[in-house]
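Let us practice reading a record.
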Amino acid sequence: MRSRRQDYSESTRQALVDSAVELFTKNGYAGTSLDAVAKRARVTKGALYHHFDGKQALFEAAFDVVERAAVERLRRAVASAEPAWERAMRGVDSYIKSCLEPSYQRIVVHEGPVVMGWERWRETEEKYSYGLVRTTIEDLMAAGEMVELPLEVTTRILFGALSAGAAVIAGAADPKKAGAEVSRTIVAVMTGMRGQARGG
């Protein structure tokens, strides 16, 4: 049985993370204070320090929540019983939708590499979504929907293209337009590889 104290502790932590996501999205890492996060979550600063040892730890928890939500949407998109190509197209669409969300743009794309450091950020990104991209490409090759190339190299190149696309969208004056252009470009590249597999 869970104790009431455990429930309260978890709800306090969740309130802090939700508050952090909102404030980091709106004001960025530098523009968000721990006092503001605690105040918005309606807890004391002492309660904040009970759960997080500082601002970076809180940011990483916020990053984790935003990234997990995006990956879960992507996982659902590619886990249907549809043919491999349709699943892959759903995956591209799901990824673009995540890239259009303000919290994803600000916390994952803009702030993540700066706050966490490039290497750690890249490793974290790969931990979350690299495996899904790899499985999708493997399924496409197995179904004859993509030309057979070294799996690891192909995954890294397409994963890099998706990451670059996220940066283009997050930095655009018109993210929606940029999202459509990124989607069209990635699909065109994949369609070209599909054509080669089919002898086109």
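A brief commentary: Residues 58 and 115 are 11 Å apart (CA to CA).
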